[in-house]
Design brief:
Layout (H helix, E strand, L loop, with lengths): L29 E4 L1 H7 L7 H14 L3 E5 L5 H12 L8 E7 L2 H11 L4 E9 L2 H8 L3 H19 L5 E9 L6 H15 L7 E7 L6 H14 L6 E7 L6 H10 L4 E4 L13 H10 L11 H12 L20 H17 L32 H12 L5 H18 L5 H13 L5 E10 L5 E9 L2 E9 L2 H13 L3 E11 L6 E10 L5 E8 L2 H17 L1
Parallel strand pairs: 1-2, 1-8, 2-3, 3-4, 4-5, 5-6, 6-7, 7-8
Antiparallel strand pairs: 9-10, 10-11, 12-13, 13-14
Helix pairs in contact: 2-3, 2-11, 4-6, 6-7, 8-9, 12-13, 13-14, 16-17
This protein binds acetyl coenzyme *A, 3-methyl-2-oxobutanoic acid and magnesium ion.
Catalytic activity: 3-methyl-2-oxobutanoate + acetyl-CoA + H2O = (2S)-2-isopropylmalate + CoA + H(+)
Organism: Brotonthovivens ammoniilytica
Cofactor: Mg(2+)
């Protein structure tokens, strides 16, 4: 048995005044990508300068206006990358790069050396503030820990005086989620006293869930409490930096936005330390799916995945929200049936609003238009198979026929095991309905209209390879063919249902016809399908298709 007694509950904030549960997300926050810093520092093989450059270009393309590009005082690669950005004039005027450093003088000096020449920069300092880290890492009391933050702020302020560009300060009480709220506000206020932010140069307080320690509502309480207790809130940008240790980073961030956060730091696909930083794309697509402009250019998920996987040498899971290979795919029968009906209803409604069961967004909106939303295996049903035949091959089978053909595919999937791909489904359709020529094979027909409703036909066909020729009258061409065959071959078949539709348009347009036929002697029933550029030929082919299936 797991030794759960080894762990204790993390104390929660007593905060009954909370207002966030009644709020709704109404707009996108300021996004800050930390892919090139937090994301990078956690990779097995951190990015080289070229990879960082490619990732930086991607982040620009996605519309990030704040990008933490690294920890330039930490290593030569980090330093060189920043210098390449600056010397190559690669930072657009509307983009602010951010650099991280500990509150240590030689690191701050090195950071300032690295940022020379940048027009707009966020210098991000941090120190750990939690009870645990104060005790076991720093062996310091609250005042000593606060002094690290105050000294770091002073050092940045001092160097900022002579800096030609614009410097914004970001301060993170690292391990915030394990910090007592009164201490967190005390240390932030002390930093604010030194920095003296204004409405024109706001101070970013970044409150990280360095380690996610509790349910998302607890983080939201902490964020709202800070939001309400900051002095000069108007001069503060409240940023959050959630990690995902409990797997609820996205939820925690969304609740933090309700609780007053203005800004979110995170990464693409949630890369980052341990279980990762919060996945910015996930939150942005969540907003998009609620009709909120996420203020990121994220319509091509495939390109984002491709660059991310190459630069980070990580892979996006098949079930990853919005991005995974399988997230817009239904295998199971009832889901497929609902999607099939939902897509049809959507087409008929055409009011521009997406509402399809099991598909929270239109896959085409994120560049996933070539992937099948329905895939067939032994869990699938008739609705899914009808959907594949309609959307991929243009056959709108009559509803009564769905079960008959689904049974054929179900047998196939059981025999072969695993997935039946769309081409196999089409091949089976062809084999079962379109290309059956035994024992009856339709050759040609000549139709003459006798009056408004009666037709005379001259029919050529083969029976077991033998040429046959017959003439008959009937109530339309199909009825005439039925009468001809019944009398010629001593049969008693009747037509129960008939339908047809056009396939394609213009000079390549064809007609598909479906006949439901009954053998009155055996009481067997089946469907037949015929396709031709000529509607009469299509219907007579469907007659012969059904006849062959009845006679087998
Ligand atoms: C939650 C986060 O993601 S924080 C960001 C973490 N990212 C990284 O650490 C990546 C880059 N870091 C590095 O390359 C290295 O840590 C460096 C170059 C910055 C510093 O390296 P070093 O000085 O060799 O080692 P290290 O980071 O272990 O420093 C530990 C010392 O710094 C102190 N320290 C740690 N963090 C801070 C801080 N934020 N402010 C001030 N002092 C700090 C520690 O108390 C310790 O002091 P001690 O030597 O008196 O015990
Ligand atoms: C540097 C800080 C913000 C950090 O990455 C964290 O606390 O997770
Ligand atoms: Mg982090």
């Amino acid at each position: 048995m797991l030794n759960y007694r080894k762990y204790k509950k993390v104390p929660v904030l007593n905060y009954p005044e909370r207002e966030w549960p009644d709020k709704e997300i109404e707009q996108a926050p300021v996004w800050c990508s930390v892919d090139l810093r937090d994301g990078n520092q956690s990779l097995i093989e951190p990015m080289n300068v070229e990879e960082k450059m490619e990732m930086f270009q991607l982040l620009l393309k996605l519309g990030f206006k704040e990008i933490e590009i690294g920890f330039p005082a930490a290593s030569q690669i980090e330093y060189d990358f920043l210098r390449e950005l600056v010397d190559g004039d690669m930072i657009p005027d509307d983009v602010t790069v951010q650099v991280l450093t500990q509150c240590r003088e030689h690191l701050i000096d090195k950071t300032f050396e690295a940022i020379q020449g940048i027009k707009n920069v966020i210098v991000h300092i941090y120190n750990s503030t939690s009870t645990l880290q104060r005790d076991v890492v720093f062996h310091m009391n609250r005042e000593e820990i606060k002094q690290i933050a105050v000294d770091g702020t002073k050092m940045v302020k001092d160097r900022a005086k002579d800096f030609p560009g614009r410097i914004q300060l970001e301060y993170s009480p690292e391990s915030f989620t394990g910090t007592e709220m009164d201490f967190a506000i005390d240390i932030c206020n002390a930093v604010q006293d030194v920095w003296e932010p204004s409405g024109d140069n706001k101070l970013i307080f970044n409150l990280p869930a360095t380690v996610e320690m509790n349910t998302p509502n607890v983080y939201a309480d902490q964020i709202e409490w800070m939001h309400k207790h900051f002095k000069n809130r108007e001069n503060i940008i409240l940023s959050v930096h959630p990690h995902n240790d409990r797997g609820t980073g996205v939820a925690a961030t969304e609740l933090a936005l309700l609780a007053g956060a203005d800004r979110v730091e995170g990464t693409l696909f949630g890369n980052g330390e341990r279980t990762g930083n919060v996945d910015i794309l996930n939150i942005a697509y969540n907003m998009f799916s609620q009709g909120i402009n996420p203020k990121l250019e994220i319509e091509n998920i495939n390109e984002i995945i491709e660059i991310y996987e190459r630069c980070c040498k990580m892979s996006v899971d098949m079930r990853h929200p919005y991005a995974g290979k399988l997230v817009f795919t239904a295998f199971s029968g009832s889901h497929q049936d609902a999607i099939n009906k939902g897509v049809r209803a959507l087409r008929e409604r055409s009011d521009g609003i997406w509402e399809v069961p099991y598909l929270p967004i239109d896959p085409a909106d994120v560049g996933r238009k070539y992937e099948p939303v329905v895939r067939i295996n032994s869990q699938s049903g008739k609705g899914g198979i009808a959907f594949v035949m309609d959307t991929m091959y243009g056959y709108q089978m009559p509803k009564a026929m769905h079960k008959e053909f689904a049974d054929v595919i179900q047998r196939l999937s059981e025999v072969q095991g695993g997935e039946v791909d769309p081409q196999q489904i089409m091949d089976k359709f062809d084999e079962e309905y379109l290309s059956k020529k035994e024992p009856y094979e339709f050759i040609k027909v000549k139709v003459e209209d006798l009056n408004e409703k009666d037709s005379h036909i001259v029919l050529d066909y083969r029976y077991n390879g033998k040429d046959m020729h017959i003439e008959a009258d009937g109530n339309g061409p199909i009825d005439a063919v039925k009468r001809a065959i019944n009398s010629h071959m001593d049969l008693d078949v009747c037509i129960r249902n008939y339908s047809e539709h056009a396939m394609g348009s213009g000079s390549h347009a064809r007609a598909a016809a479906y006949i439901q036929m009954r053998d009155n002697r055996t009481e067997k029933e089946t469907f037949g399908v015929g396709v031709s550029s000529n509607i009469t030929r299509a219907s007579i082919r469907s007659f012969f298709s059904a006849l062959n299936r009845l006679m087998r």
